[in-house]
Amino acid sequence: MAQVHEYKVAMTCEGCSGAVERVLNKQKDKIEHFDIDLKAQQVKVRTALAADEVLEIIKKTGKDTQFVSTSQGDK
């Protein structure tokens, strides 16, 4: 069942958010949807993957990433 995991990611520019977008797109078979809010430095990911698995994927960008919370997907 898909859940929405929220992360705080140190992104300061379009290049930063682009890097996050690229690593998440590589997992598109496992990730249903993601939303990147550059201004709030927030990333929300809808997936059946565990929160720590997604955390490791985002950390591949080299950006400081922290898990915030998980909520149930509305699907």
Automatic annotation (TrEMBL):
Keyword annotations from UniProtKB, A to Z: Chaperone, Copper, Copper transport, Ion transport, Metal-binding, Transport
GO biological process: copper ion transport
Limits of the HMA domain: 2-66
SUPFAM superfamilies: HMA, heavy metal-associated domain
A GO molecular-function annotation: metal ion binding
Record PROSITE patterns: HMA_2
CDD domains documented for this protein: HMA
CC terms in the record's Gene Ontology section: cytosol
Origin: domain of life: Eukaryota
Complex and partners: Homodimer. Interacts with ATP7B. Interacts with ATP7A. Interacts (via dimer form) with SLC31A1 (via C-terminal domain); this interaction improves ATOX1 stability and controls intracellular Cu(I) levels.
PANTHER family: COPPER TRANSPORT PROTEIN ATOX1 (PTHR46365)
Family of this protein: Belongs to the ATX1 family.
Function comment: Binds and deliver cytosolic copper to the copper ATPase proteins. May be important in cellular antioxidant defense.
Protein's UniProt name: Copper transport protein ATOX1
Source organism: Dendroctonus ponderosae
Taxonomy of the source species: Eukaryota, Metazoa, Ecdysozoa, Arthropoda, Hexapoda
